[in-house]
Write a structure and sequence with these properties.
The protein is α/β, with parallel strands linked by helices. It is built from eleven helices and six strands. It is elongated, with a radius of gyration of 21 Å.
Length: 264
């Protein structure tokens, strides 16, 4: 694969300006299956605000198409012959936001794709045509977008790989990878839920806070806005009589130590 440009165009993820509503989002579709490529192109091109400017059969072709067309969004398959999607990601993300569109929902692949800069991860069979178009618009505006399997994989990976911290004064608590310890924590969480009378959504968000997620990650996982996340957190803090994330998570997980100020 050729070296990426020394001065890539500005990344839309770093630009808070709203896109021009009169200019269609320009999309490159990369998938080794010609039937899938044609189908995605037909579905997206039917939208007035989206246009597919190029198709590609592997990561190298996707890179060349991106250099030539300077798209707003790149739809990228994971497994392709030659240069696969994961290998191509570091070369593509400086050019345009990338959303993975694949049949693979394996947690390690989802994690690696996001680590390498993908702005979204969609698993085939988990979205409608309208949801696909919405995902393209979201990615084009710098908003993360994950389908349920991908979101679940991210949360599972966080819970599995994170180490439980007994000293919440030094860092926020995380879920442990030990099944026995996790069982104890889940029991404590159940007691906390009853004690603090959190709603199902508030309990879900509190679980994500305790796993170490920030507001943006929680919003992407729950498919809600960051403003809605903040509103839920304000209500959670009130119910848990807490002023920081660390303090709330400590109470939620049944910890007894008092977090230091400044961890929230």
């Amino acid at each position: 694969m050729p070296d990426r440009p020394t001065q890539p165009p500005p990344n839309p993820f770093d630009d808070d300006r709203p896109p021009d509503p009169h200019t269609p989002l320009r999309v490159v579709v990369a998938d080794d299956n010609p039937v899938v490529r044609a189908g995605l192109t037909a579905l997206l091109s039917d939208r007035e605000d989206i246009t597919v400017v190029a198709e590609a059969a592997d990561g190298r072709e996707a890179y060349e198409a991106a250099i030539h067309h300077r798209p707003d969004v790149i739809l990228l398959d994971v497994r392709m012959p030659g240069v696969d999607g994961i290998s191509a990601l570091p070369h593509l993300v400086p050019i345009a936001p990338v959303v993975m569109l694949t049949y693979s929902g394996e947690s390690r692949i989802v994690e690696e794709a996001l680590r390498r800069g993908a702005g979204g991860y969609l698993v085939h069979g988990e979205f409608t045509v309208e949801e696909l178009a919405l995902a393209v618009r979201d990615i084009g505006r710098g908003r993360a977008h994950l389908t349920p399997t991908a979101a679940t994989a991210v949360l599972a990976q966080l819970r599995t790989s994170a180490t439980a911290h007994n000293d919440v004064a030094s860092s926020p608590p995380f879920f442990t990878s030990s099944p026995k310890q996790l069982s104890h924590l889940q029991s404590a969480v159940g007691q906390s839920r009853r004690e603090f009378r959190l709603s199902a959504r508030e309990a879900e968000i509190m679980d994500l806070i305790a796993s170490g997620m920030n507001n943006q990650q929680i919003a992407a996982t729950c498919f809600i806005s960051e403003k809605t996340v903040k509103n839920h957190i304000n209500r959670i803090f009130a119910k848990l009589h807490s002023t920081s994330r660390a303090e709330a998570a400590a109470k939620w997980l049944g910890a007894t130590a008092t977090p230091h100020r400044g961890l929230g």
